[in-house]
Amino acid sequence: MKKIFLLLCAFFMTASLFAYDRDYTEIQKKHSESSGQKFLFRDVFGTEFKTVINPEVPAVQTKKECFKLNKAKTHMTYTGDENYRIRLGVDISRHDGEVDWKKLKKDGIEFVILRCGFRGYQSGKLKADENFQKNIKGAVEAGLDVGVYIFSQADSEKEALEEAALVLKEIKGHKITLPVFYDPEIIRDDPARSDNITGEQFTKNAIVFCEAVKKAGYIPGVYSNMLWEAYEFDMAKLKDYVIWYADYEEQPQSPYAFEFWQYAEKEGDIKAPYDLDVQIIKNK
Question: The domain containing residue 189 runs over which residues?
């Protein structure tokens, strides 16, 4: 998705090449000097970061070494752990244009996460994704499970509730079998409404959005990545929601539980027409 490029550019630092809205130098030092189990991870440029694992957050249960690309390097597999299995999926917005839903199903895709709306990062205007109604109709008719997300630029809990209201309006009457995800964004190289929002406020926004979704009878979720989990979100306060985790390493790095993993974007190293995801399912 186009948004993930903006997200990564905003969060993943390399001092010699970029100037970022978020500078994690001091916050990383504070985290790494705290007591507790230390955790190292790296960004998309290979820069290492250090944080401390929060013991209040449920730990990841899958074995990261079991995640491997298939020989053709077209999709992810999970082998060697009888406790879990995965399903293949994609995430799609209007930026992806026309979609051949029957072909996706034939190629082994079992679910899709659709963008149903967005807020302008400067105007603050809240809009439905122009292709959402067409996309969800095609996905359901092809027999795919469907979840949705909204590209958020909410600067307050009030605006996060407005975004939840838009999502609920757009999905009314449709078969939504997967979570409704809150996806906050920080924009790189452009003034944006989210530039000065604190991690504490991002967490509050996520909670009120998710609670509104839950009250309406849907499964709430939050889109995240390792830098967000280390330095922005209060993950202990989000532990009751499904996490959709973005990480383009060969195996996911997060020490925390997640149910969905966005492991590749269509502009990345893996040749794919859409962003690629897996859903992790516990075997009974």
Answer: 59-282
